[in-house]
Write a sequence for this structure.
């Protein structure tokens, strides 16, 4: 009896020992591997999270770095030329006279002229695609074609403008009776106005499509015609959205370099009228940056870049703010 | 009264016709440009055009091999830099919507999107050209990658925000660690959206000239070294289009057609793939 019990204990103990043995030989190794593996996973996870945060920080640093570089590099010009630089009327690097007024004027003239030409077209596209024909292959085609306008590289617009548009403008100028130069602010504005159509158009379309249909139906039920619905319901409702679209177009027009440089004529004189050649802030930087041979000259150009940067950033931020408020409510 | 109603209806119809005419008029310049470039460019393109470097003024012939190769190199290096950074940053923005850093980061991306390309050229000049003492293809690539970043980041962020949260929660419930959830579940689900953003950004920088003016600078010879000046297609078009020589204009027309075909093709492919993807979603 006792021996059998002992035997059974022994066998039980043996079996326990055997189990422990088997754990020791294979499973413990495996579990420790698994633990190591999950430790590694945790570590990778931490590294991954840290990388993500680092990327976020890097983006902030990048923009701060851009701003800081522009400010630091334009310090010599701010110091030696002062704030009067911005409305000095003469730009003559050879005699060391720097005034940015011709370029400010040129930039404002080209951008606002381009805006004035393009706004009716882009609003027409927005209304047609948003209200009259929101669906169908024809409107799809129109939408995609208008979006392709933004895809064409600006240097190609410039080349085309130089070869095709400038002769047309020149013959137009002969008819009007101003000096037929062809290249000048007017040509630049025409090219720009084509280039900026898609920005206001696609945003305007999205905004017009977001107008609640009850409002439109209510107006129609009261007997309003299609045009009256658009004028008294859709346009007031999308007012700020359309304004944001205009701002984005303006920001684009202000910063556009290549197409403008190729057709504007590049003279640093104050433009007399909208047909005379001129220069914009972006085009003067593109033309003279590699020629700038002394520090104040270079720094004056960079200060123009700084002004351009600040203006476009402010305009873009206002536009984006309006869009964000619109789409979240 | 009846006349008044007729007048209103007529006005409405008139306005409709006017907007349609104006809207269709927008397409005219684009078609004019495409047709003109095609007409001018197609006669200049042949095998010789793709395999030779430009000849000096006066000699007929010559091609754009150096600009093509340069464009491919500059754009590839820019993509190598911008795509990983952009996607990771987009993931960060879509995963952390409420933190302060995400707010500032989003703001900076918005700012970056609005920066004029010429300003980015200035920045790359001061960061990379001036310290190293010479114009280089690498500095051009970095300038272009800065231009790519906001597009990649925004498209990644928007795509990942569209994915349902349940997907992520299911993966977490299975005990997957964070990085595997993102890289093995979330990113593959949104890969088409991310890819379309990447392609759009490549199309955008393929035609950029302004940031390359002071960085890659241009080079009349075939060059593969990224620490030396390099010719790219848009630079070649700009330099030759503004030159007074007819031979060079011909080269520029051919190059314009190549560049235009490249950019439009990328855009159209992107449009088609995104449409497909939206249907699948």
């Amino acid at each position: 009896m006792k021996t059998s019990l002992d035997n059974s204990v022994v066998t039980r103990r043996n079996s326990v020992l055997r189990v422990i043995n088997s754990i020791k030989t294979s499973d413990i190794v495996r579990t420790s591997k698994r633990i190591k593996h999950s430790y590694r996973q945790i570590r990778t996870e931490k590294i991954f999270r840290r990388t993500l945060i680092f990327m976020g920080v890097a983006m902030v640093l990048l923009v701060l770095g851009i701003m800081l570089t522009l400010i630091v590099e334009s310090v010599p010009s701010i110091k030696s030329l002062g704030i009067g630089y911005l409305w000095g009327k003469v730009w003559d690097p050879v005699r060391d006279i720097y005034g940015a007024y011709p370029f400010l004027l040129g930039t404002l003239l080209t951008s606002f002229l381009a805006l004035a030409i393009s706004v009716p077209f882009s609003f027409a596209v927005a209304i047609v695609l948003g209200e009259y024909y929101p669906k169908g292959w024809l409107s799809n085609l129109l939408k995609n074609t208008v979006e392709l306008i933004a895809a064409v590289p600006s240097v190609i617009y410039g080349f085309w403008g130089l070869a095709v548009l400038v002769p047309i403008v020149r013959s137009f100028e002969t008819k009007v009776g101003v000096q037929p130069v062809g290249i000048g602010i007017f040509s630049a504005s025409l090219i720009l106005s084509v280039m900026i159509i898609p920005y206001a158009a696609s945003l305007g379309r999205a905004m017009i499509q977001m107008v609640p249909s009850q409002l439109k139906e209510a107006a129609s039920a009261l007997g309003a015609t299609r045009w009256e619905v658009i004028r008294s319901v859709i346009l007031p409702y999308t007012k700020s959205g359309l304004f944001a679209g205009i701002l984005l177009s303006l920001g684009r027009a202000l910063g556009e370099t290549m197409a403008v440089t190729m057709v504007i004529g590049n003279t640093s004189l104050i433009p007399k009228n909208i047909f005379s050649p001129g220069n914009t802030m972006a085009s003067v930087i593109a033309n003279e940056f590699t020629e700038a041979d002394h520090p104040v000259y270079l720094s004056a150009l960079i200060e123009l870049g700084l002004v351009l940067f600040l203006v476009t950033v402010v305009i873009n931020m206002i536009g984006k703010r309006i869009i964000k408020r619109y789409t979240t409510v | 009264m009846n006349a008044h109603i007729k007048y209103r209806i007529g006005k409405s119809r008139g306005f409709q016709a006017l907007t349609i005419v104006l809207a269709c008029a927008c397409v005219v310049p684009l078609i004019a440009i495409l047709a003109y470039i095609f007409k001018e460019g197609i006669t200049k393109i042949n095998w010789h055009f793709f395999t030779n470097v430009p000849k000096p003024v006066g000699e007929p012939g010559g091609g754009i091999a150096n600009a093509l190769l340069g464009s491919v190199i500059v754009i590839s290096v820019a993509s190598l830099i911008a795509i990983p950074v952009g996607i990771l940053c987009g993931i960060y923005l879509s995963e952390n919507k409420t933190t302060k850093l995400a707010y500032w980061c989003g703001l900076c991306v918005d700012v970056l999107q609005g920066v004029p390309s010429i300003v980015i050229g200035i920045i790359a000049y001061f960061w990379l050209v001036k310290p190293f003492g010479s114009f280089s293809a690498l500095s051009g690539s970095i300038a272009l990658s800065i231009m790519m970043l906001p597009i990649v980041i925004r498209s990644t962020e928007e795509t990942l925000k569209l994915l349902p949260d349940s997907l992520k929660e299911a993966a977490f419930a299975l005990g997957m660690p964070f990085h595997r959830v993102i890289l093995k579940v979330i990113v593959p689900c949104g890969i088409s959206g991310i890819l379309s953003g990447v392609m759009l950004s490549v199309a955008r920088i393929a035609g950029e000239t302004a940031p390359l003016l002071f960085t890659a600078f241009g080079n009349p010879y075939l060059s593969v070294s990224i620490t030396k000046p390099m010719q790219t297609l848009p630079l070649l078009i700009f330099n030759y289009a503004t030159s007074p020589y007819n031979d060079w204009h011909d080269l520029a027309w051919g190059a314009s057609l190549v560049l235009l075909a490249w950019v439009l093709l990328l855009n159209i492919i992107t449009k088609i793939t995104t449409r497909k993807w939206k249907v699948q979603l």
User: Anything to note?
Assistant: Chain B touches chain A through 86 residues (CB under 8 Å).
